[in-house]
Amino acid sequence: MASSTFSQSDIGSARNRLLFIHRKIPYKIAMKPLIGLIGGTGLGHALAHEIKGDAIAVETPYGPPSGSIARGTWQGIDVAFLPRHGPQHTLPPSAVPYRANIFALKSIGVTHILASGATGSLREELRPRDLVIPDQVIDKTHRRVGTFFDEAGLAAHVEFSQPFCPMLRRVLLDSSSGVDVTLHDAATYVCMEGPAFSTVAESRMHRSWGGDLIGMTCMPEAKLAREAEICYALIALPTDYDCWRPHDPGVSQHELLKEIIGNVEHATANSVQLLKTALEAIRAKPLTACNCQKSLDLAIWTKPAGMDADIKKKLNPILARYCSKQ
After folding, report:
1. What average pLDDT score do residues 160-173 get?
2. Does the annotation mark 242 as catalytic?
3. Is there a catalytic annotation at residue 240?
4. Over the stretch 6-26, which tens digit does the pLDDT of each residue have?
5. Domain ranges of the chain
6. pTM of the predicted protein model
7. Which of 31, 179, 182, 215 is at 20 to 30 A from 116, Cα to Cα?
């Protein structure tokens, strides 16, 4: 019998065909969701007053999350709220424990995440106080561990061409009629390390890349959610035009800061209303599962029998569904 050999290009082509099939096959199993809400600047404080529930302290292999998770019911939907920057906003973007946050939410059964984040606008049409549902991201962070799969003993490569869950984005966009705000569909979010803001040259460069928003917290949060098989969508709150657009020379720095704070407060109120409307829609029409929730099916290259036992145990909340199928 003649032997068969496969080149790297053959393997790559086969994988691409599998990914195409994977994306096209609908995953229509109805499910009872537990919606994780990650509140960023502004919205974190507002949601802490909106959502009343049991405070859950979760231990993770990556240390404690940003704070206790408030588990309760909001708008008739089971939710789990986590303030990204901590209850007193003490965690700057680079110090947010992103892995601990996503791992903790996964551990208590969160199936979907609706997150928020204040941003600068890189486009004239994305005005402060508007809301934006981004569909793409450029990751410029460099001081944050951006994966659960960084140890020898388990190789995994999630597909991330669409970084935000299309189904959750559609739920948010379809809920805009219940909110008196301009809601923009699609934008590229440039995630920078921070904590300092951009130079004028950097801001112009981000625009030339095709960036529409500039922020500091979307990554690695969205990527970790995908690795944990959690649907994830983001509400971006533009607060100003970054520095590519010259400020009115007649406006002082103090006046400008006051204006930005006012924009945050206004956009936050609209975000709360958008979330309420979206949750009401989810209650009326239950979500169906989607491909985000089986993202490891084609991502893991190590067979369960070959996985390092300690890593397998450590990542059990993330790997349990995948390993149960093998």
Report:
1. 97
2. yes
3. yes
4. 344 444 444 443 343 333 333
5. 30-325
6. 0.89
7. 31
